[in-house]
Protein backbone atom coordinates (compact mmCIF):
# COMPACT_ATOMS: atom_id res chain seq x y z
CA UNK A 1 0.00 0.00 0.00
CA UNK A 2 1.42 3.39 -0.99
CA UNK A 3 2.02 6.05 1.62
CA UNK A 4 1.03 9.66 0.93
CA UNK A 5 4.29 11.48 1.67
CA UNK A 6 5.93 14.77 0.70
CA UNK A 7 9.45 14.77 -0.84
CA UNK A 8 12.08 16.56 1.27
CA UNK A 9 10.14 16.24 4.52
CA UNK A 10 11.37 13.13 6.34
CA UNK A 11 8.69 10.84 7.70
CA UNK A 12 5.79 13.15 6.82
CA UNK A 13 2.61 11.24 6.09
CA UNK A 14 -0.16 13.59 4.98
CA UNK A 15 -2.90 11.54 6.62
CA UNK A 16 -1.01 11.49 9.93
CA UNK A 17 -0.50 15.25 9.67
CA UNK A 18 -4.24 15.77 9.25
CA UNK A 19 -4.87 13.78 12.42
CA UNK A 20 -2.19 15.28 14.66
CA UNK A 21 -2.10 18.73 13.07
CA UNK A 22 1.66 19.20 13.32
CA UNK A 23 5.09 17.71 12.77
CA UNK A 24 8.53 18.87 13.90
CA UNK A 25 11.67 17.49 12.29
CA UNK A 26 15.36 18.04 11.72
CA UNK A 27 16.16 19.04 8.17
CA UNK A 28 18.00 16.47 6.05
CA UNK A 29 21.43 17.67 4.95
CA UNK A 30 20.51 16.93 1.34
CA UNK A 31 17.04 17.50 -0.07
CA UNK A 32 17.77 16.58 -3.67
CA UNK A 33 16.18 18.28 -6.64
CA UNK A 34 14.07 21.36 -5.95
CA UNK A 35 10.33 20.74 -5.86
CA UNK A 36 7.76 22.28 -8.15
CA UNK A 37 6.43 25.71 -7.30
CA UNK A 38 3.13 24.44 -5.99
CA UNK A 39 0.92 24.90 -2.99
CA UNK A 40 0.73 22.67 0.03
CA UNK A 41 -2.11 22.37 2.51
CA UNK A 42 -0.03 23.20 5.56
CA UNK A 43 2.01 26.05 7.01
CA UNK A 44 5.74 25.70 7.54
CA UNK A 45 8.31 27.57 9.58
CA UNK A 46 11.95 26.72 10.05
CA UNK A 47 15.48 27.60 11.05
CA UNK A 48 18.10 26.95 8.36
CA UNK A 49 21.81 27.45 7.90
CA UNK A 50 23.11 27.06 4.36
CA UNK A 51 23.40 28.43 0.85
CA UNK A 52 19.86 28.52 -0.52
CA UNK A 53 17.48 30.25 -2.90
CA UNK A 54 13.84 30.55 -1.84
CA UNK A 55 11.23 31.15 -4.57
CA UNK A 56 8.08 32.53 -2.94
CA UNK A 57 5.29 33.76 -5.17
CA UNK A 58 7.01 36.35 -7.33
CA UNK A 59 9.89 36.88 -4.89
CA UNK A 60 13.35 35.36 -4.99
CA UNK A 61 15.47 35.36 -1.83
CA UNK A 62 19.10 34.23 -1.96
CA UNK A 63 20.66 33.42 1.41
CA UNK A 64 24.02 32.09 2.54
CA UNK A 65 23.69 32.31 6.31
CA UNK A 66 21.33 31.37 9.16
CA UNK A 67 17.74 32.50 8.81
CA UNK A 68 14.13 31.91 9.82
CA UNK A 69 11.62 31.17 7.09
CA UNK A 70 7.80 31.17 7.02
CA UNK A 71 5.74 29.51 4.30
CA UNK A 72 2.07 30.32 3.71
CA UNK A 73 0.25 27.52 1.81
CA UNK A 74 -1.61 30.07 -0.32
CA UNK A 75 1.65 31.12 -2.00
CA UNK A 76 3.39 28.86 -4.55
CA UNK A 77 6.96 28.22 -3.42
CA UNK A 78 10.03 26.06 -3.80
CA UNK A 79 13.57 25.90 -2.42
CA UNK A 80 16.91 25.19 -4.11
CA UNK A 81 20.15 24.81 -2.20
CA UNK A 82 23.82 24.36 -2.92
CA UNK A 83 25.81 22.02 -0.70
CA UNK A 84 24.75 20.81 2.72
CA UNK A 85 22.26 22.55 4.98
CA UNK A 86 21.25 22.13 8.60
CA UNK A 87 18.35 23.22 10.73
CA UNK A 88 14.84 22.44 11.87
CA UNK A 89 11.30 22.83 10.57
CA UNK A 90 7.79 22.71 11.98
CA UNK A 91 4.78 21.94 9.80
CA UNK A 92 1.21 22.47 10.95
CA UNK A 93 -2.31 22.66 9.58
CA UNK A 94 -4.72 25.59 9.65
CA UNK A 95 -6.93 23.81 12.16
CA UNK A 96 -4.04 23.11 14.56
CA UNK A 97 -3.00 26.76 14.87
CA UNK A 98 -6.39 28.48 14.57
CA UNK A 99 -7.33 28.49 18.26
CA UNK A 100 -9.20 31.66 19.13
CA UNK A 101 -6.53 33.03 21.50
CA UNK A 102 -3.77 32.93 18.88
CA UNK A 103 -5.37 34.32 15.76
CA UNK A 104 -4.45 37.92 16.62
CA UNK A 105 -0.70 37.41 16.57
CA UNK A 106 -0.92 35.09 13.57
CA UNK A 107 -2.80 37.65 11.50
CA UNK A 108 0.08 40.10 12.02
CA UNK A 109 2.79 37.53 11.41
CA UNK A 110 4.73 36.62 8.25
CA UNK A 111 2.52 33.51 8.02
CA UNK A 112 -0.50 35.57 7.01
CA UNK A 113 1.12 38.56 5.31
CA UNK A 114 1.54 36.99 1.90
CA UNK A 115 3.32 40.08 0.62
CA UNK A 116 6.09 40.15 3.22
CA UNK A 117 9.42 38.43 2.71
CA UNK A 118 9.34 34.87 4.09
CA UNK A 119 13.01 35.02 5.14
CA UNK A 120 14.45 36.71 8.25
CA UNK A 121 18.28 36.66 8.73
CA UNK A 122 19.50 35.92 12.28
CA UNK A 123 22.65 36.82 14.19
CA UNK A 124 24.40 34.25 16.41
CA UNK A 125 22.49 35.16 19.57
CA UNK A 126 19.11 35.07 17.82
CA UNK A 127 19.96 31.79 16.10
CA UNK A 128 20.94 30.17 19.40
CA UNK A 129 17.66 31.21 21.03
CA UNK A 130 15.51 29.94 18.14
CA UNK A 131 17.53 26.72 17.97
CA UNK A 132 16.67 26.03 21.61
CA UNK A 133 12.95 26.41 20.88
CA UNK A 134 13.07 24.02 17.93
CA UNK A 135 15.05 21.50 19.98
CA UNK A 136 12.40 21.69 22.71
CA UNK A 137 9.65 21.07 20.13
CA UNK A 138 11.57 18.15 18.66
CA UNK A 139 12.02 16.56 22.10
CA UNK A 140 8.37 17.02 23.05
CA UNK A 141 7.17 15.79 19.64
CA UNK A 142 8.49 12.27 20.34
CA UNK A 143 7.03 12.09 23.87
CA UNK A 144 3.62 10.95 25.08
CA UNK A 145 3.05 14.16 27.04
CA UNK A 146 -0.71 14.73 27.10
CA UNK A 147 -0.45 18.47 26.39
CA UNK A 148 2.32 18.37 23.80
CA UNK A 149 0.08 19.93 21.16
CA UNK A 150 -0.48 22.94 23.38
CA UNK A 151 3.24 23.19 24.14
CA UNK A 152 4.07 23.06 20.42
CA UNK A 153 1.55 25.84 19.77
CA UNK A 154 3.19 27.97 22.46
CA UNK A 155 6.61 27.39 20.88
CA UNK A 156 5.29 28.36 17.45
CA UNK A 157 3.80 31.53 18.91
CA UNK A 158 7.09 32.37 20.64
CA UNK A 159 9.03 32.00 17.39
CA UNK A 160 6.53 34.26 15.62
CA UNK A 161 6.88 36.89 18.36
CA UNK A 162 10.67 36.75 17.97
CA UNK A 163 10.35 37.12 14.19
CA UNK A 164 8.13 40.19 14.60
CA UNK A 165 10.50 41.68 17.17
CA UNK A 166 13.57 41.12 14.98
CA UNK A 167 12.03 42.29 11.73
CA UNK A 168 8.60 44.00 11.73
CA UNK A 169 6.35 43.56 8.71
CA UNK A 170 7.94 45.28 5.73
CA UNK A 171 5.10 45.98 3.31
CA UNK A 172 7.59 46.87 0.57
CA UNK A 173 6.90 44.03 -1.86
CA UNK A 174 7.37 44.85 -5.54
CA UNK A 175 5.00 42.69 -7.57
CA UNK A 176 6.08 41.02 -10.79
CA UNK A 177 2.81 41.83 -12.53
CA UNK A 178 -0.74 43.07 -11.99
CA UNK A 179 -2.07 39.54 -11.46
CA UNK A 180 0.31 39.00 -8.53
CA UNK A 181 -0.78 42.29 -6.97
CA UNK A 182 -4.50 41.47 -7.27
CA UNK A 183 -3.99 37.94 -5.90
CA UNK A 184 -2.10 39.38 -2.93
CA UNK A 185 -4.81 41.97 -2.25
CA UNK A 186 -7.48 39.28 -2.44
CA UNK A 187 -5.60 37.01 0.01
CA UNK A 188 -5.15 39.83 2.52
CA UNK A 189 -8.77 40.98 2.19
CA UNK A 190 -9.98 37.41 2.72
CA UNK A 191 -7.83 36.87 5.81
CA UNK A 192 -8.78 40.21 7.39
CA UNK A 193 -12.34 38.92 7.87
CA UNK A 194 -11.11 36.36 10.40
CA UNK A 195 -11.37 35.37 13.15
CA UNK A 196 -15.13 35.78 13.46
CA UNK A 197 -15.62 37.15 16.97
CA UNK A 198 -19.39 37.76 17.15
CA UNK A 199 -22.32 35.90 15.63
CA UNK A 200 -24.12 39.22 15.31
CA UNK A 201 -21.55 40.43 12.76
CA UNK A 202 -21.65 37.96 9.84
CA UNK A 203 -19.07 37.83 7.07
CA UNK A 204 -19.40 40.64 4.57
CA UNK A 205 -17.51 39.06 1.68
CA UNK A 206 -18.44 35.51 0.72
CA UNK A 207 -18.32 35.25 -3.06
CA UNK A 208 -15.84 36.03 -5.81
CA UNK A 209 -18.15 38.85 -6.91
CA UNK A 210 -18.11 40.33 -3.39
CA UNK A 211 -14.30 40.47 -3.41
CA UNK A 212 -14.17 41.81 -6.97
CA UNK A 213 -16.50 44.65 -6.00
CA UNK A 214 -14.42 45.44 -2.90
CA UNK A 215 -11.25 45.51 -5.01
CA UNK A 216 -12.88 47.51 -7.84
CA UNK A 217 -12.05 44.92 -10.53
CA UNK A 218 -14.12 42.70 -12.79
CA UNK A 219 -14.83 39.29 -11.29
CA UNK A 220 -13.39 37.52 -14.33
CA UNK A 221 -10.12 39.41 -13.94
CA UNK A 222 -9.98 38.55 -10.23
CA UNK A 223 -10.61 34.87 -10.97
CA UNK A 224 -7.92 34.73 -13.67
CA UNK A 225 -5.36 36.50 -11.48
CA UNK A 226 -5.91 34.32 -8.41
CA UNK A 227 -5.87 31.13 -10.48
CA UNK A 228 -2.69 32.18 -12.31
CA UNK A 229 -0.76 33.04 -9.15
CA UNK A 230 -2.01 30.43 -6.66
CA UNK A 231 -3.21 27.54 -8.83
CA UNK A 232 -6.62 27.62 -7.14
CA UNK A 233 -9.82 29.44 -7.99
CA UNK A 234 -11.12 32.35 -5.96
CA UNK A 235 -14.14 30.31 -4.88
CA UNK A 236 -11.97 27.46 -3.61
CA UNK A 237 -9.88 29.86 -1.50
CA UNK A 238 -13.05 31.35 0.00
CA UNK A 239 -14.62 27.94 0.67
CA UNK A 240 -11.45 26.59 2.32
CA UNK A 241 -11.09 29.61 4.60
CA UNK A 242 -14.77 29.61 5.61
CA UNK A 243 -14.57 25.88 6.31
CA UNK A 244 -11.41 26.32 8.43
CA UNK A 245 -13.15 29.04 10.44
CA UNK A 246 -16.23 26.85 10.84
CA UNK A 247 -14.06 24.05 12.25
CA UNK A 248 -12.38 26.45 14.68
CA UNK A 249 -15.74 27.80 15.87
CA UNK A 250 -17.14 24.29 16.30
CA UNK A 251 -14.09 23.11 18.22
CA UNK A 252 -13.20 26.16 20.29
CA UNK A 253 -16.51 27.85 21.12
CA UNK A 254 -19.86 26.86 22.61
CA UNK A 255 -21.81 28.68 19.90
CA UNK A 256 -24.78 26.79 18.50
CA UNK A 257 -24.55 25.48 14.95
CA UNK A 258 -27.21 28.03 14.00
CA UNK A 259 -25.12 30.89 15.42
CA UNK A 260 -22.04 29.67 13.56
CA UNK A 261 -24.05 29.39 10.34
CA UNK A 262 -25.27 32.98 10.67
CA UNK A 263 -21.81 34.29 11.62
CA UNK A 264 -20.36 32.76 8.45
CA UNK A 265 -23.00 34.37 6.28
CA UNK A 266 -25.46 31.53 5.77
CA UNK A 267 -29.11 32.53 5.82
CA UNK A 268 -30.28 29.19 7.23
CA UNK A 269 -28.47 26.49 9.28
CA UNK A 270 -29.54 23.90 6.70
CA UNK A 271 -27.53 25.73 4.03
CA UNK A 272 -24.48 25.70 6.31
CA UNK A 273 -24.90 21.99 7.13
CA UNK A 274 -25.07 21.05 3.45
CA UNK A 275 -22.11 23.30 2.58
CA UNK A 276 -19.95 21.93 5.40
CA UNK A 277 -20.77 18.30 4.62
CA UNK A 278 -20.09 18.78 0.91
CA UNK A 279 -16.58 20.06 1.64
CA UNK A 280 -15.58 17.97 4.67
CA UNK A 281 -17.67 14.83 4.26
CA UNK A 282 -19.20 15.16 7.74
CA UNK A 283 -21.82 17.37 9.38
CA UNK A 284 -20.96 20.17 11.83
CA UNK A 285 -22.53 18.22 14.70
CA UNK A 286 -20.41 15.15 14.00
CA UNK A 287 -17.22 17.26 13.97
CA UNK A 288 -18.19 18.80 17.30
CA UNK A 289 -18.85 15.35 18.82
CA UNK A 290 -15.43 14.15 17.63
CA UNK A 291 -13.70 17.08 19.39
CA UNK A 292 -11.03 15.79 21.77
UniProtKB/TrEMBL annotation:
SMART domains: HTH_ARAC (SM00342)
Superkingdom of the organism of origin: Bacteria
All residue ranges annotated as the HTH araC/xylS-type domain in the record: 180-290
Entry keywords, A to Z: DNA-binding, Transcription, Transcription regulation
Gene3D superfamilies linked: Homeodomain-like
One Pfam family named in its UniProt record: HTH_18
InterPro entries noted in UniProt: Homeodomain-like_sf, HTH_AraC
Record's keyword annotation contains Amino-acid biosynthesis: no
Keyword Coiled coil: no
Residue ranges that the Swiss-Prot or TrEMBL entry lists as coiled coil: none
Protein name as it appears in the record: AraC family transcriptional regulator
